[in-house]
Amino acid sequence: MGYSSHLSKPKMRSARRRLGRRGFSFVELLLVLSLGTVVAAALYQVVRFQQRVYRQESEAIARHDALRLASSVLAADLMEASGREGDFTALAPDSIVVRSPVGFGVVCDTDNSDKRVGLFGTSGRFSASDGDSLLVYTPGGWLVMAIQAVNPSSAGSLNCPYAGGPALELTLRVDQSVANVPVGAPVRTFHVYAYRLKQDRGAWWLARSDASSTEEDILDILVGPFSDDGAGLAFAYFDAFGQSTADATQVTRVDLSLVAVSGGSTGRDTLTTSVRPRNQ
After folding, report:
1. Average pLDDT score over the chain
2. Is the per-residue pLDDT at 180 higher than 60?
């Protein structure tokens, strides 16, 4: 009996060691895999949610930028325009044609015999080939002149009459008399632009073109995209009494509405503002 007891003790210890070294059971492995799958799925949903929020925020920022830039461009031109001076060329519910300022200068000398004007303090664009017009301020009001040549090579010279002051920077030949243009008069150059929406790459964008061009001759696509349901760009025109008007010379207020879109037109933001053009 003592011998049998002596032999059984090592066998029991060996069995215990084997039991202590065993791995996961199949059920335990399935449980771990199931828990891992649940955790991974939860993490995936969190990542997808964060991506969706980021995309929505990015699209909202893009829409707000489009509205801000478009309203800034349009408001800048509308505020510089005057209905009385003929700056509004055509009015429509979804487009507008307006004289847009593109340059500035100050008169320092004139030569009426050759219809030339000498300028200093110039900035922006002065062009005869682009159909730009010149507005010169005189005691009788603003005169509208067409630029026929820039820095013409005709005889005669112009000089600024300021000792030690600014020098002549630019000479223009115009299409009418400059006899009543005083030295020191401000000069502005304008170009007639049309603003409307144009389709490009499956979306609608605010575009600017020469007023005489067709839809296919758009010069600049400025910003967008905007709604294509007719509300993407809308204008309303009012006179001094607050009444709706189609007379370009009577416009004293322009209501502007813009609808920017993104995300396949599912995201929309609207901006509506009133702009008062100069009244002189």
Report:
1. 81
2. yes
According to the model, what pLDDT value does residue 11 have? 57
B/e letters for 87-125, b = 16+ CB within 10 Å, e = fewer, are: bbeebeeebbbbbbbbbbbbbbbbbeeebbbbbbebeee
If DSSP codes are grouped into helix, strand and coil, which group holds residue 110? Answer: strand
Secondary structure (3-state) at 29: helix
Q: The whole model's pTM is what?
A: 0.70
Strand runs labelled E in 88-140: 88-92, 95-111, 116-124, 133-138
- 235 pLDDT band (50/70/90 cuts)? very high
Question: How many C-alpha atoms does 196 have within 13 Å on its Cβ side?
Answer: 23
Residue 30: the pLDDT is: 74
Rounded to whole angstroms, how far apart are CA atoms 98 and 235? 13
Instruction: Check: CB of residue 106 under 8 Å from CB of residue 154.
Output: no
CA distances from 231 to 69, 94, 154, 224, 271 (A): 17, 8, 52, 13, 11
Contacts within 8 Å (CB) and 24+ apart, 90-93: 90/194, 90/211, 90/248, 91/235, 91/237, 91/246, 91/248, 91/251, 92/235, 93/234, 93/235, 93/236
DSSP letter, residue 244: B
